[in-house]
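README, section 4: Worked example with a bound small molecule

Sections 1 through 3 covered apo chains. Here we extend the same pipeline to holo records, where the ligand is supplied as SMILES alongside the sequence. The molecule in this example is LBFN2T5F. Nothing else about the input changes; the structure line simply encodes the ligand pose together with the chain.
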Amino acid sequence: MAIEFTKYHGLGNDFILIDNRSSLTPVLTPEKAVQWCDRHFGIGADGVIFALPGQNGTDYTMRIFNSDGSEPEMCGNGIRCLAVFLTELEGINRTKDKYSIHTLAGVIVPQLTDDGQVKVDMGEPRLLAEEIPTNLASSQVQVINHPLEVAGKTWDVTCVSMGNPHCITFVEDVAAVNLESIGSQFENHPVFPKKTNTEFIEVVNRNYLKMRVWERGAGITLACGTGACASLVAGVLNDKCDRTAMIELPGGTLEIEWSEIDNRIYMTGPAQRVFTGKY
Ligand SMILES: N[C@@H](CCC[C@H](N)C(=O)O)C(=O)O
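The generated complex, written as C-alpha cells:
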C-alpha cells in the first residue's frame, strides 16, 4: 500500500513527515524507515517523523526514527518541521499556531513566528550524569570539562541532555576535526549507555559559535537543533559564551537562548517543505 509523505528540512537536516493523526501506532516499522531514509535505494533523509494524536492533554504526539531505525527521545530541527507540517495539514493561521507536542523528552511547544520561522520552547536542560546518561561521573554530578579518551587522544567534554544525550567538545578550529573517523567512536563509547550525539564547537565570540555534529543513529548531518541547544548550555557552563547566541552549522544558523527567568531553552530557526509524494 502506498503511503503519502512530505519531505521537509531544517537547515539541511532532512526528514520524511507522515500524517499519522488517526492512530498512535506509526504506520512504518523501524526497518521500513531505514529503507525510506536510504539516499540511494529510498527517498533519502536523516529520519522519519510521525504526526500522531495528542496524549495526556497535548495537541499532538511526535515520534521519530533515525535513519538507522533507532528511536530518539527528541529532535529539534524535526519538531520545527512538524510544526509547519501540522499547520499545512490543519490549514490554520500560521502565526497564531502554538502546539503542545508530546515527545519522549516531555512536552515541547513550537510556535510559528511572523517572519516564517519557528520558535520552540525546548524545555529545561538536564545536567546530572544519570540524566545524560553517562558513567563519566557519579550519578548526581554534572560532567563539565571532563577528560575522555577517544581515538588515542584526551578530549575535555561537557555532557548535556535535551531529552536526548549530547557530548560537547570545544576546539580551536572546527573545520579541522576529523568527524568521519572519530564521530562513531564518541557515539559508541562505553561511558554512554544509550550512546550519544557529539558536537564540536569553535567559539567565534561570546554570542557566535560554529558547530559540527555527529548524530547518534544518523552520522554526520548538516544541523542538529537539540545539539545546538546543548552546546549553548555547555558554552555557558564553561564560561565561553553568553546565554543567547547564534550557532552556525554547515546547513545554516540557529538562534538559541537559555532563559535566566525560567531556565528553559528557546530555539528559533527555519523549516522548509521540499516535496510531497507517495511511496
Ligand atoms: N537532528 C536532531 C536530533 C535527532 C535525534 C538524534 N539523532 C538522537 O538520536 O538523539 C535535532 O535536530 O535535534
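What to look for in the output: Residues 13, 66, 72, 75-78, 164, 197, 215-218, 221, 224-227 surround LBFN2T5F (CB under 6 Å). Residues 40 and 109 are 34 Å apart (CA to CA).

Section 5 describes how to batch many such records.
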